Predict the structure.
Amino acid sequence: MNYGTLDYVRENNEEFFVINSEYEIELMIKRIIPSHNTFPLRVRMHPENTRLIRMIMKEFPFDIKTDKWNTAQGQIIEQEELAKKVETLDYVEPDKVRFKGELMPFQKQGLDFIIKTNGRTLITDEMGLGKTIESLAFISTKPEAMPVIVVAPLVTLVNWKREIEKFLALTNKRFDKQTLLTDGKVREPKVHLIRHGNVKGKRHRLPMADFYLINYELVSKRYKDLCDLNPKFVIFDEIHSLRNEYTEKYKACFSLASFKSILYRLGLSGTPIYNHGTEMFNICEIIKQGVLGERNEFVRKYCHGYNPDKTTDEGKVGLANVLRKTIMIRRKKIDVLPDLPDKIRLKQEIEIDTDLYESELEKLYEKINVARGQLSQSFTDFEHKEGLFELNKKIREMRIAERQIAGLAKVKHVVEYLEDLLENYDEEKFVVFCHHINVHKAIFDGLWKYNPVQIIGGQGDKARQDAIDRFQNTDKNREASRVIICGLRAGALGINLTSSAYVIFAELDWSPSVHRQAEDRLHRIGQKHKVFAHYLEGTGTFDEILSGVLLRKTVEISDALGDKMESMNNQKAVEFLESKYRFSKTSKIAELIANPVIPDRSQSYVSKRLEQLDDL
């Protein structure tokens, strides 16, 4: 006896099993498997759901109406075999004609992992271990994979072009978007950089090329043009840029990765999780839909109290294991490059311009007090809600502004700190990272006599590359610079600064992953010395609150990725973090939050809201 039917449908580039059965059975399935609230019932097709449906069918058989059910059984077997295959990786060589480089042993194993996962892979090796090279090595084994689309941050596109031309040669020639003909001659790949969106909605056909390089913000604007190419391969560099599924760039990249002609998808990131382990779900959906199950199932399995922002300890371990058995490979420098020098972090508390800091904060406090006073004088419900909104807004503005004020208050002492290093280490070079543009410019101006160069947001490709070349230059007959000042976001991706062994953080970021990326501009293949990272913390400023947030995030991210807290053992790592990051209970913001002058009826609401603001 059959209790219903099981069919198949494909919609919006997703595959579903369609189950038509009695209401009670459908209700039971919904409890067990997160499903779309439709009639008939639709369950996304992936191995985990297939296992559950098969278990249900042992008790309540269905009439199978589609051959996709047999395909699904094959997916289960394939997943189980894959887990066994990736337990041990072989040393695989790229194509010797089409690949012009030489892979290190661990990179050959990385190539093997990509091949075994059928080119739907997340490569999360630490920065500087050659993720780009492994991707190009895989492309050399798949000449049919042209054209390739590389989606990456704008600042890394020129570097991608250089790497492609340096490491790849092609033996086939594309005469049009459908045909690949072999002419037997080795040639350089043709690379096209997409720099602009379509003007006023008019489409412009892309020229013939083997590789198309585009930044994340342009994918939605050129989506149809990209699809017209019938691309076979898409690479998402720094794929953590797609951790938020609600953004326009995520939706466009998800659609591109799901396009019918795409055969291979690679995601690259040394720091795939910025803040919480659940960001990994969105990233994995780009590379291989359903590999971590349905979203509701993921939250139920890995998160605390069904809160997608709170991954449980058991969930972190389970997530790391599942990822490594299915699509993710991650190697740390300490494991694969024993000869690479250590990375040493130093926390340095420095003085601040207290007059500047206090005077600027007083202006902020006055705005807060005005908002609090207006709230205390509210009489109607409307005035009360408006007052709460305004107080909430002013506190947010204060948090942003105090971070900038803390940076400006440190500038004088940051410059003195750097001058001391430059004078005492007369042959060394220094990389300086900061966040705010006005802090960046103030440090740049303060070090003018040392002929600094800079990487800053909005900079053109040529100016950016000239700055890097002047800093990296070792030819004493050419103009060079000993100092490069970089924006934490603009200068932490896709560049090599190995001519220096000293990185100075003049300002801190909310995310520890940003710091790791910045450090690893120096701590990567080609570095011959120990790397020293100096974290300059202004005592009694907003830096202390940032430090507390960084501690919590660092621990959670390391657990979710299965790391052991950088290159130190756990005990030393925790001791280091506790000494470096501490939460200030004397901060004026902390005092303000602890003692808000507001009506009693609003106390609980505002306290709860401020706690949410604090847990950024």
User: Anything to note?
Assistant: Residues 175-181, 563-616 have pLDDT under 50 and may be disordered. Residues 381-424 form the longest helix (44 residues). The chain has three domains: 4-85, 105-331, 343-614.
